Amino acid sequence: MSLIPNLFGNRRSSSCDPFSIDIWAPFQGFPFSGPLSNAHSAAAGEVSSFAGASIDWKETPEAHVFKADLPGLKKGEVKVEVEEGGVLQISGERSREQEEKNEKWHRVERSSGKFLRRFRLPEGSKVEEIKAAMENGVLTVTVPKEETKKPQVRAIDISG
């Protein structure tokens, strides 16, 4: 196990994915807090390390399906929007638990703050029919695809 933080996290890089429009958070996953993390938060446009919310994107014959792990969030704390030009945006905020008078935190590892993920939807996406559902901390966004007409194949009799 390495004691040096991985600059790119443990998830697959989306740098080669033309559809991903992630906000780059260079200090995501670094084990520090305090003034540096506050500076990072301000530098990232108030998007915290939670910006790396894990999202899977799969394509089926009928739709594009996005699944986001958002443990502890309620559906009212998450926004799903489609921007002009076919950009799917998933955002929200996880509030930090406040320390009470007689309490003392010994460790804070759960991330908090705002998050924002954006994906450019491919041509043929039916943005007006997008559906989103939240269950057990997993957001599922389904973007139906336009039906592609299969070319008709007609058998031709061979004479001779």
UniProtKB/TrEMBL annotation:
Gene Ontology cellular-component terms listed: cytoplasm
Sequence intervals crossing the membrane: none
UniProt cross-references to InterPro entries, sorted A to Z: A-crystallin/Hsp20_dom, HSP20-like_chaperone, Small_HSP
Superkingdom of this protein's organism: Eukaryota
Localization terms from the record: Cytoplasm
Keyword Iron annotated: no
UniProtKB keywords: Cytoplasm, Stress response
Location of the SHSP domain: 46-160
Alphabetized PROSITE patterns for the sequence: SHSP
Record-stated family: Belongs to the small heat shock protein (HSP20) family.
Name this protein carries in UniProt: 17.6 kDa class I heat shock protein 3-like
Taxonomy of the source species: Eukaryota, Viridiplantae, Streptophyta, Embryophyta, Tracheophyta
